[in-house]
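Sample intake sheet
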Amino acid sequence: METVTLSNGIKMPILGFGVYQIPDLEECERVVGQAIEVGYRSIDTAQAYGNEEAVGNAVCKSGIPRAEFFITTKVWISNAGYEKAKASIDESLRKLQTDYIDLLLIHQPFNDYYGTYRAMEEYYKAGKIKAIGVSNFYPDRFIDIAKFSEIPPMVNQVETHVFNQQKQARKIMEKYGTKIESWGPFAEGRNDFFNNETLKEIGEQYGKTVAQVALRYLIQRNVVVIPKTVTKERMVQNFDVFDFALSNEDMDKIAKLDQEQSLFFSHYSPETVEMITGLVR
């Protein structure tokens, strides 16, 4: 598996498996178990997904040494603040059945995320977290936390796909030694993603699907990807993206698909902020 090297020297698999929107613990455990069988070793979960326990079960039942896995989870808004974050990290460790978390992210840039980050830095120094970062931090808030934290974020997980390639935001991340990680590499099918003519035509040259071309494009741009599926056949397809390379011409064609805006929501929008913060009661 290809990796990216984080600012502290930790190597993170460039391809992982996401478990967003798989809240049923039995199904999630089954799906993660299948992903492990396919060969995935990087698993991305979150407190808000409600399935950390299932991920922990699948990893433990696999019989594969814990050191071979790279497990990511995220602190949710309701657990923001120094003391609450510490308690939630302990709970995540318990649910994941592990002594350490490979990567811990702040899930959203709301509530007392500075207190959360201080707790994360403390656990990082204690060896209970191997790498720390953020998620959904747009350039303004990203710069703010990068400049005023003791340990700048090592990863920023943001919406990234062929229609929203985050080129400018990525330049800012690179300035602070932060790696970009994609959530929604298939844009959850929006914009008629899987029928895009450019991706289809390029895929035909290599005998690959639209999804495989989309993943390969991001991987060649050194973007970490965590595609999610509950179908084993698609797990295999998504994993099978290291036996070909897109030409410079193909890369240029896909680069032109960039619309430079979200297909989901903007964290700059008051309505979005009210919606997301409204999930906390």
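Comment: Residues 198 and 254 are 7 Å apart (CA to CA). The first strand starts at residue 3 and ends at 5.
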